[in-house]
Amino acid sequence: MTDTSQPVRAVAGYRNSLLRSPARAPWPRIISPADTTGPVFDPAAVEPSEHDLSVISPGRPRAMGQLIVITGQVLDEDGRPFPNALLECWQANAAGKYIHHNDPSSVPVDPNFIGVGRVMTDAQGRYRLRTIKPGGYAVPDHGEGQLSGWWRPPHVHFSIFGPAFSSRLVTQMYFPGDPLNERDLLLNSIPDEAARSRLIGRFAPDLSTADGALGFRHDFVLRGRLETPFEDDHR
Ligand SMILES: [Fe+2]
Prior knowledge:
The protein is built from three helices and eleven strands.
């Protein structure tokens, strides 16, 4: 049975998804103990400063754009916090540009913004990131099979690692009220509306900081009825 809370694999209008989507059912793979027991991420390996994408290093100017804080919890299907998960995030700069060879746009790079961060969840499954709000961007026109004029809405990519490399989930967070959300092929590749809404962060004025960061709350639910839509087919 198709799970309508998760993205479809082949997204009409998104050429890369058509090329990457397997036409046949995947082979079941034998999971070995090595797959599930290691490596274990050491919280000490993640520097506290890595949660702050808005400055590359102490003393440098902060990145251009609207400062934001994103915070929330990683939870299991029963609402229990998931501690010691490694959250990695990556995003475009405020103008919608990635520092990546696959981003061919002429939008300027911000010399004070790299766009990657890491944080471990604490004992209550909580995380907190400080960054700048990413800009939307025009998706390059790859020709046949690709919708032209498609813009990605502002979004932050997330990877969540559990206690082993094999326990990885990948997803994106969107921002509330953005008109591009309704037109995005990836967000709308999730058939279920309630599931789509779980990818949109909530504006949280109480999290706003004295130095001008706007707050957003966003939780990740690993399984169950309220599961976050993930990009990997992990069943
Ligand atoms: Fe992106």
